[in-house]
Write a structure and sequence with these properties.
Elements lengths: L1 E8 L1 H5 L3 H10 L3 E8 L3 H7 L3 H5 L1 H11 L4 E9 L1 H9 L12 H5 L4 H7 L7 E3 L3 H11 L11 H4 L3
Antiparallel strand pairs: 1-3, 1-4, 2-3
The structure holds adenosine-5'-diphosphate (ADP).
């Protein structure tokens, strides 16, 4: 039941100075951050992360998405909690910020639509990636983090002490 999910704060989140606000959403919900780092990926690494996107969304989406994901650094997080994968997707919201519900990260901090992204020939800039299912989470965490970069520790709530 305790799972780990990969969360990426995409280049738009970093450039807009939203890392702290987004991280707070997960901390406020009681999730434990067990890995965190900033990294600037290249297109080859982006292709490994988004290995199935061309199949699911088409070649054009893969191309614009790789341009987007390599335009600046991202913050990679490994987030742990009860049913973390499903719970985090709920907090993140739907892919398209225009239709993502208010209260979700994508609904609250962005508003771009599929139609606008398509017209501008750019990716949907939606601030954040979160693993889609438990299997994917395992593969993604292993892709982004070395074992030595992931930490097991007790939160203050678990130990009742600082
Ligand atoms: P999610 O990130 O919500 O799981 P996907 O895995 O299907 O969604 O897509 C990966 C990312 O590709 C999205 O978060 C978004 O940034 C981008 N994307 C998806 N579909 C489109 C599209 N039709 N046009 C532009 N960008 C897209």
């Amino acid at each position: 039941m305790i799972e780990r999910s990969l969360v990426l704060l995409k280049p738009d989140a970093v450039k807009r100075g939203l890392m702290g606000k987004i991280l707070t959403r997960f901390e406020d919900a009681g999730f434990k951050i067990v890995g965190a780092k900033m990294t600037w990926i290249d297109k080859d690494f982006g292709k490994r992360h988004y290995a199935d996107i061309a199949e699911r969304r088409g070649e054009k989406v893969l191309k614009v998405l790789l341009n987007f994901m390599t335009q600046g650094p991202v913050m990679a997080l490994c987030v742990e909690g009860i049913n973390a994968v499903e719970n985090i997707r709920k907090i993140v919201g739907g892919t398209e910020p225009k239709s993502a519900l208010p209260g979700t990260i994508r609904g609250d901090f962005a508003h771009i639509s599929f139609a606008y992204a398509d017209k501008e020939n750019k990716a949907i800039e939606n601030l954040i990636h979160a693993s889609g299912n438990v299997e994917e989470a395992k593969v993604e965490v292993a892709l982004w983090f070395k074992e030595s970069e992931l930490h097991s520790y007790k939160t203050a709530y678990e130990t009742h002490t600082f």
